[in-house]
Design a protein that fits this description.
Elements lengths: L8 E5 L2 E2 L13 H11 L6 H4 L4 H6 L6 E3 L1 H11 L2 E4 L2 E6 L2 E7 L4 H4 L7 E5 L2 E2 L5 H8 L6 E10 L2 E10 L1 E4 L3 E6 L3 E6 L6 H11 L5 E5 L5 E3 H8 L7 E7 L5 E4 L11 E5 L6 H12 L3 E4 L7 E7 L5 E10 L15 E2 L5 H13 L4 E2 L3 E4 L5 E4 L14 E5 L7 E5 L4 E6 L8 E6 L15 E7 L1
C-alpha cells in the first residue's frame, strides 16, 4: 500500500554504483497503486495498454529508462550510491541492449584493479544474462557481500573490433568521499563533487574554508551522475550572484523556478566548472545554470543529456517506485534532456583540469613576457635564468618563482647562483613524464643598484 503520509522526495540522478548483496525480491507488487501513480504523476501520458501489464517491470518498460520499481534492498542500495556508501566492484552503469554499460570506473576499486574500462558492456554475471535488465535489476547479480567473487562476461570494442572476455572480481568496500579538495599550484583551489548527496552543501563549505586563501577555483563535476535536487539548490548557492537553481516542468502544471539556497561561504575570484560526457542530471542542472548566468566558465565535453527528475514513492513493504515526474531546464528555459550541456571551452578527454588550470595561471601572469616554451625535456631538467644585467641575488625572494605542474601542485625546488646574471632552478624531485608545467618568475627582484625588475616572465614546459 502506498503511504500517502510520506512526502515523496525528488531526485535528479542518472547513474548507479553497484553495491548491494544478492537478494531475491518476490513480494506481492502493489500494482494498482503503481498504475495510479503512473497515471497521475508520470511526466507524459501513458497508454492504458501499458498500464494493464501484469508486473511492475513490464509497466516500467513502457516508460523512460529512469523509472524503476525497486525492492527494499534495491532502494537501500540506490540511496547508498548517492551518499557514496559503497560495497561492490566500483563501477557506474547504465542500461545497454546487450547488458549493462560501464560509464565510469572508480579509482582503486576492484573493477579498476581488474582492468575494467568505461565503455565495457557487462553481459553476464556468474553465468546469468544481464541482457534486457535495468541497472537496478542487474545489481543483485553483480554485487554481493564483501570479499565474495563475481565472474563477469565482458564485451569491449577496441579500434573497431569487438573482443569478449571474462574477469573474476572480488567485491570490496569502496571509500569514495562526496567532496575532495586540494590547493593547486598558483594558489588555485580545486574542489571535486562526486555526488549531489545530502551532505554535499556542508562538505563544500568545509572545502572552501580549507582553501580560503585561493585566488580562484576549479569546481569539478566530471563523472558525477547526479543526486538530490535539494543538493543541487544548495551547491548553486555557493556561486555569487546566482539566485535561481533550475526550472521544473511537471505534467499539467505551469513551469516552476526553484531558488538557489544562499550560502554564507562563496567562491571568490574566477571559477571554472569541469564536465564530461558522464556529468549527468543534477550536474547538468548546475552546468546549464552557471553557463547561462555567466557564473563559471565550463570546460570539457558535452554532458550526458539527462534532463528529467524522479520522485520516490514508498510502499508499506519498503519497496519504492522511482518515477520520472518532471523535466528540468535552465532558469530561463534552456533544455537539457536528450541534448546535454555544451562547454564554453571544449577539451580533449582527460585534459579538462590541466586546460582550466593553465587558463587560471594565465590570468595571474597577465602582462608578463611569454618566453618560448621548452618541449620534451628530460624529467631531470633544471632551468637556468639569465638576466640582462647584474642582480643582487642575496635579496631574492624564492616565492617570486613558481614551477607549477598543470593539474597539480607547485614543484619544490632549490636555487643555485651561477654568477651575477644567472641562477639555476633545481627541482627537488624528477618531473613527471608526459606532464606539462609552467615556470613563472614574478617581478620584484632587485638589480645590483637596488632597482626592481618591473616585468615578470613565464614559459611552458612539457616533459618527455
Amino acid at each position: 500500500m502506498f503511504r500517502n503520509a510520506m512526502k515523496p522526495f525528488l531526485l535528479a540522478v542518472a547513474l548507479l554504483v553497484l553495491l548491494i548483496p544478492n537478494t531475491v525480491f518476490a513480494a506481492v507488487e502493489p500494482l494498482d497503486e503503481i498504475r495510479e501513480l503512473v497515471r497521475k504523476h508520470y511526466v507524459d501520458e501513458v497508454s492504458e495498454a501499458v498500464l494493464r501489464k501484469g508486473t511492475a517491470e513490464e509497466i516500467m518498460k513502457g516508460l523512460d529508462k529512469y523509472s524503476v520499481y525497486m525492492s527494499k534492498d534495491e532502494y537501500g542500495a540506490f540511496v547508498d550510491s548517492i551518499d557514496q556508501r559503497l560495497v561492490g566492484i566500483g563501477v557506474v552503469l547504465e542500461e545497454d541492449k546487450n547488458g549493462v554499460k560501464v560509464l565510469a570506473v572508480i579509482e582503486d576499486s576492484p573493477a579498476s584493479l581488474a582492468g575494467l574500462l568505461a565503455g565495457d558492456i557487462l553481459t553476464h554475471a556468474n553465468g546469468s544474462s544481464l541482457k534486457g535488465k535495468s541497472v537496478q535489476a542487474a545489481i543483485p547479480f553483480i554485487s554481493g557481500k564483501e570479499n565474495t567473487e563475481v565472474v563477469l562476461a565482458i564485451e569491449r570494442t577496441t579500434r573497431g573490433s569487438l573482443i569478449k572476455f571474462k574477469k573474476t572480481i572480488k567485491r570490496a568496500e569502496i571509500h569514495l568521499p562526496t567532496v575532495e579538495s586540494e590547493m593547486l599550484g598558483g594558489n588555485i583551489g580545486h574542489i571535486r563533487l562526486n555526488s549531489f548527496a545530502a551532505d554535499s552543501g556542508k562538505e563544500i563549505a568545509r572545502a572552501i574554508r580549507k582553501l580560503e586563501t585561493a585566488d580562484s577555483f576549479i569546481f569539478d563535476i566530471r563523472n558525477n551522475g547526479g543526486g538530490y535536487i535539494t543538493a543541487a539548490q544548495e551547491v548553486t548557492g555557493f556561486f555569487p550572484e546566482v539566485a535561481e537553481a533550475f526550472q521544473l516542468r511537471e505534467k499539467n502544471k505551469k513551469p516552476s523556478i526553484y531558488p538557489a539556497v544562499n550560502q554564507e561561504m562563496k567562491f571568490e575570484g574566477p571559477v571554472s566548472l569541469l564536465v564530461n560526457e558522464f556529468s549527468a542530471s543534477a550536474s547538468e542542472m548546475l552546468a546549464v545554470n552557471l553557463k547561462e548566468a555567466g557564473a563559471a566558465t565550463v570546460y570539457g565535453q558535452k554532458t550526458y543529456g539527462k534532463g528529467t527528475m524522479q520522485t520516490m514513492y514508498a510502499f508499506s513493504d519498503g519497496s519504492v517506485l522511482k518515477l520520472t515526474t518532471a523535466r528540468f531546464y535552465s532558469p530561463k528555459g534552456i533544455a537539457v534532456n536528450g541534448i546535454g550541456v555544451s562547454p564554453d571551452v571544449v577539451t580533449k578527454v582527460g585534459e579538462e583540469l590541466t586546460t582550466a588550470h593553465f587558463d587560471h595561471l594565465l590570468l595571474k601572469v597577465k602582462g608578463y613576457a611569454h618566453l618560448s616554451g621548452l618541449e620534451n625535456v628530460k624529467p631531470t631538467k633544471t632551468f637556468t635564468v639569465e638576466m640582462t644585467k647584474e642582480m643582487d641575488w642575496s635579496a631574492i625572494d624564492q616565492s617570486a618563482i613558481e614551477l607549477v605542474e598543470l593539474g597539480g601542485r607547485a614543484v619544490p625546488f632549490k636555487l643555485a647562483v651561477k654568477n651575477g646574471k644567472k641562477i639555476t632552478i633545481i627541482p627537488e624531485k624528477p618531473l613527471l613524464s608526459g606532464a606539462s608545467y609552467m615556470l613563472i618568475i614574478h617581478p620584484g627582484w632587485l638589480d645590483i643598484n637596488g632597482l626592481p625588475v618591473k616585468s615578470g616572465i613565464y614559459l611552458n614546459v612539457t616533459v618527455e
